[in-house]
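Table S2 (continued). Query chain:
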Amino acid sequence: LHQKVKVECIVADIPAQDVVDAIAEAAHTGEPGDGKVFVTPVEHAVQIRTGKTGADAV
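Corresponding output:
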């Protein structure tokens, strides 16, 4: 078994590939268990404390 860590990042479309590349480079060891990166769209966000929505909530 491999120890697993889940990291979630919310970023704008433009630097998204840079973030994916940085994570992949930092996590790569060439051994089983290096991990996976999933890229999915975020439809909407709400910051509960302030009530901000959309990009302002992030």
